[in-house]
Amino acid sequence: MLGLILVWKDYGLVFLLLYAFDAMAGIMTSFARGLDKIADISISGVLCSGVIISSNILFLIVFRWGIKGYLVANLIGTIVQSVYLFIRTSAWTYIDLRSIDRDFSKEMTSYSKPLIANSVAWWINNASDRYIVTWLCGVAENGIYSVGYKIPSILNLFQTIFNQAWILSAVKEFDPKDKDGFFSKLYNTYNCLMTLLCSGIILLDRPLARLLFAKDFYEAWRYVPFLTIAIVFGAMSGYIGGIFSAVKNSKVFACSTVIGAVTNFLLNITLVRAIGPLGAAVATAVSYMVVWCVRLINMRKYVKLRLRLVRDVLAYAILNMQSALLIWKAGTSIYLYELTFVLIMIFLFRSEVKDVAKKYQEKFFKDKRKDL
Question: Which domain, by its residues, includes 72?
């Protein structure tokens, strides 16, 4: 408690300002996305990162401000991002305090309340495993476990970029009957890409760990497979979440994520006691799968997607078999089995793979003709 008081005394003002401008940057990013200013959002992100990096170099290396310098650098980065988007969107032209629609404000408040529970529940889903590993296994084991997130973050980056664009498209193109098959085809293609990438990452897990992890942290490769599977289910949950955004049902967001968070917490305590940090990775994967299942069931009330669930469930089972085999079987022959699983996955998703390959082939020849 004394430590928290001292931290607040030294950095309280910076924390408050960082929180305020981080919230402002989030608001301005959402506002710019609503105006379809995607290029400006990208530029603002690059500006923010550039300012934070250069400020960190200045404050930490030149001025030697320590923690305060790190916080101030992040503060300046978020201020630059907020100001840039404020100017590029001409946000001041949309502000008129005299024309506040109270009914609309109530509707927005009602929509936003469940999202608070949703955010808290996602935080529990993402962070509880590391706290429980620290509690039951120690700080050293948690350090190794945390390193395991580095490789899955490759897949997480892809799904984050997709979801930002998808929510906008879901709201604009929403069709309860999905007459043109846009939602169904996109779901199946997205699921194909995420699942195949996950399968490939599991195959290359150990070589990537040798390349990316320091020697003392190499053991973290054991946690990568199930953490990567969690990313796949998180991605598909995010896709379905775009549909709930389109129909303005935030309660399903909160309900599904809270169920997942409770599942994660209970499984973490049980499995970490039984098999150590690996239990936390398994618990995370299962909890994300639970969120996906709850959202998938509720989604059918709003839109009828033509999905290949039997094929998808089989693919997810193969991912789990890949993971178990990699973790518990030794020897170089393991890579032959893993490669066989990857080829089976490609066969299962052959129609989506052909469609994607055809589109890229058409685009390639189209660009070639332009050059000629």
Answer: 9-95
